[in-house]
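Possible race condition, two jobs.
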Amino acid sequence: MLFKKAQRFLLSLPLLGLLTVNISQAQEETKQIVPKLQNPISVPYLQKKLKKAGPKLVLNPKIEKNLKKKLKSDPVVQNLYKAIRANAVEIQKEPLLVRALEGRRLLHVSREMLYRMNMLGMVYRIEKDPIILKRIDEELKAVCNFTDWNPSHYLDVAEMAMAVAFGIDWAGEALPSSTIELAKTALIEKGIKPSYNEKGNTGWVGGNNNWNQVCHGGMVAASIVTADKNPELAVKTIGRALDSMPQALVSYGPDGVYPEGATYWSYGTSFTVFTAAMFESAFGTDFGLAEFPALKESADFKVLSNAPSGWYYNFADCGDKRSAQGDITLAWFASKTGNKAYFEEDRFLAPAAGMGKLARNAGAGLVWVSQYKEKEDQETPLVWKGEGDNPIVIFRPEANDPHQYYFGGKGGRGTVNHGNMDGGSFIFELNGVRWSIDTGNQRYHDLEKTGFNLWDRCQECERWTLLTKNNFGHSTLTINDQHHVVDGKAVITDFKEGSQPEATIDLSAAFEGQLKSARRRFVKDSPTSLLIEDTLEASDSTRLVTWQLLTVADVELVKGGAILRQDGKQLKLENLSHPEISASVVSLDPAPLELDRQIENLKRIELRIPAYIMNDRKTTIRVRLSGD
């Protein structure tokens, strides 16, 4: 199915060529057709097309002129700039950055530098304040004199390289020549050249995850601003990015789901749009990036992942809650489509003094906000299915829904990038309360510093001992108290829209060797209820089926189910199919392992159904969750 849908995408993109690559086990095991970006990059092309005067990164003289015009008339642009200016004031109270690693990462330092250059750089572009210029100069000299930018963890290099590139691009004509020379040398020697290290640490070059997007973005920024110093290296590096980025971008297909979840969408996608914007400002074209199949559609995924409660649908290694600030990356999509659903005007117009620390792409984002022009109404779907490496379904509320009904369910498998053993899991909100939760993510450094092996994803790997990563920490099924089959992909097999939407997920592969077959069906059977129906066929090895719901609500067990209470609201859990089997509650506060994420009042509601009661090895579990 994925292969056929990719073909349909490609027929609509005559400017894009094709290449065939083997993508990882965490994606599809078959060969997949991947669109190409245009790649005319050569030294003559660079000399002819690369903008000569003024800034080149996101800004150029024409874009800057439009931005300054909007600053005089557009209240959204004015307010966001006011917040950027306030951030620049606060930065000047902070000490200069030092090369201080956190475990194996320098990433927090690199990100802070990118933030500082976005804030200070944008204020300098608008006001030409010599005090701001002096601070940019000091910041650049500090980080360019680091011994290195930690190439063993290349995200650190990429974000630092982009930061330094923006610094000298947005303030370059006024900086001391010695600073510009220092910075360009650092960009080449500490930024670009280590990315050609044959000894390793460069697996991101052709990778299929966010590293590809972030690292190529940083290298492109560095190459554009150093092209005058080493055009051959710039051509080689920009060309490499254009050839390699599709291998990560294809993960958005076919419908826009980012397999690593909403916060990783923000990370990987923010650098992709950085790169597209830099290409446009520097060369007058983005080489096909904005039209890459399913990239624009992924903005719907991000919008739909924002639940009414303020939480994300936080599957995979996703954060819990979104920021109160307007989404800067979505603003780029708004500028390209005119879709007001992507332009969070109310959040951008919040009091500037109360916005706090802005996102590190907010300086560039001011440009995208200034470029937004609303087009005709474009509806965001209320019921949505996204296929791909980590397929999901979402039922979201209408704007005037008093119950704020929100459901997210998923397929997928543990071996997807940042994936968990969570096939068949779901989150459910009603009346402003998240009743069924995803246990979410936890800080990587807190695990890694103990020697914990977080990143290997074999069946017996240590990652799956964590509650946030295994099936015991998700609202799904567990068979024989065993882990899911890590590479068994759960797929969406049926999907119906309408006032009573439903979706069916085939979980059989996740239970290979444990069950003969398993299908989970979700139905919004009323404006205040969700029906979960599991159709199962046992195998010789099936002993026990456990139906699970993870919650932080207080739970009262009653005949035929349970009553959940939270924040003055209540939800009824009805065991429709097996009322003779009583539910039980397993406290997960504290969680089983010291290294587990500790979540206050976390518990798992279970229905434990022994295989011997199944009729002809078959059973259907039907549970309804309903509110007032």
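Job #2 (started ~2 s after job #1):
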Amino acid sequence: MGIRIRKSPSPLFAPFSFPPLFGPTRAYKRIPHTPGKPESGRSQGDKHKLFIAMVNSKDVSEVRRRVADRWSKIDYRSGNRLELQSDKEQSITADVIDLTKDSDEDDTEDRIEVVKHVRTSNPAGSIEQRCLEEEQAERVQYPFRLIRSEIYDRNTPSSPHFISMEEVLSDTKLKTCWLFSYQYELDYILPMFHENVNVRMVAQNGTILPLTNRDAVSSKLLANLQSFSINMPPYTCHHSKMAINFYQDGSCQIFIPSNNFTQAETNIPQQIWWSSPQLPRAKAGERNKSKFKSQLQTYLDSYPCNLGSLKKSVDEVDFANLDNTNTQFVYSTPTKRNDIVSGFRLIYNSLKDESLIPSLGSANREQHYLVQTSSIGGPLRVPSIGAPNLFTHLMVPLFSGLLPVPDRLTSTGHINNMLQTSRLKQEFRRNKIHPYILYPTLDEIRTSPLGYHSASWFHFNWARNDANKRHYKTLTSLGVLYKQTPGTMPSSRGTAPSHSKFYLKSTAKSPFKTLDWCLFTTSNASGHAWGTNLRGPQNYEVGVLLFSDSNKVLVPKSANELIYKPGRTLGNSNTPADDEDDRQKVIVIVPFGLPPTKYSADDESFCFGKKYAQTDIQGRVHSGY
């Protein structure tokens, strides 16, 4: 099997082979399953027949040829697109993923051709998860889970800390599923749904790769599928990733994943999902105030397409179970409405409302701010400062109280008092502020299980031009670049890079033993995702902000600790009470170890656009572009 990944106008990578369970890229005939019976419940014999049918098929997908032929022919303003039909059934006719490259800030995702899906048995341990929730809901919460990879976890025992897309999309009680994503691969996700589910997709024009293999079930799903399309300007994107499930009993559950809905992205980089509690239907006549609901509705209001039916359904849900978890919905939106504040300005206001922005000079403890990201945008355009970084020069100074601003930030407010790098370094030291940017090194990419093939999701093009080189020099001079601590993930995953985006603050004596707050989001560390000192965001992004208080404490745990570490069992892997803190614990599962390790003098941040002669674990070089 092969997958080819490219960023225009670079040449395609050579095809490479995955383990058999990942499935070939050839077209296959989907074996119908018994109505009402989840496909994940097939016998091993049925799965073997499905795999053999895929291997023996000779009908190579025509979509692959069309995609390869048209990458350089996309007109981002008037090219192929899905026409908005919010109130009618709509067939998916786009035959190319329209992905863009940010001309200033490289936070775009990769371009991926079709990869066909082979179902595996349901790996998510949903029964164990329910038992875990029942036994420990009073003292420990687990809102985050690691995506079980069809590549890395073929031999890993089930765990309640795993999740799969099948678990979310194949629920027999699911009635309507609203999906938000930057990429959709219908050959991968549509077979996961039961035939009576109403699927709704919010998508950027041209980012839905159509179904190439139909049967009676998929045809019925397609007939009921509605897409809500958005025309994005060049170099911007609908980068949000979210699933909002409505069930037959009127309840709702919200999921925010770090992956787009394609097979390759789900399985190659490391991915995390956040899940809300089950949210019941509100009682007749009751509409309790909810900050989470209010901010979700504001985000939905910012879309140019008509999402009225979704907003109505959201309004009928009781969000009390979620509001009680110290969790807020946060977002970025490119809307021009002055009454909607989003991006880093919304984060600042939310932290300020919870009294989580310290006063300048009042902090008497070390402050540790970490971002783990899959892309780092270019420098902010502040010529008087040089090549300032969004995270170190704007976000950390704001969130730490180092940069004085009005009590609340507005959507149009400019921030003109950023510090020179030399002064910033002094203030960090004087105020005990420690920024961390966790981003993969060249050696981590090279030595990861799939080598350079896992690199196409990671964009920090610091070698592209002089401005970006100065930006990289700024970060190295500040000493803020970090990598995974060796041995903190299992050998099956090794140094596989993480596509998740975490922003963490810790004032614990042992850094990152506990967290003051945690921001899990689709937003990379770029101005397009968050906005800059002079403008608002240009992408659609979503996330959740969680914070500790006198009753709850956020405790980060690596996936290795909870899933892979030898000797772990369901009983002892889920008891993180290793201190005397009697607050209810909310476990933040991360796909890396904490604290991370600072770059050595020989380390270099991986640059996707740069040519590397050093071979990876498969003996290949990276051609760059």
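The chain is about 20% helix and 15% strand.
Logs attached separately.
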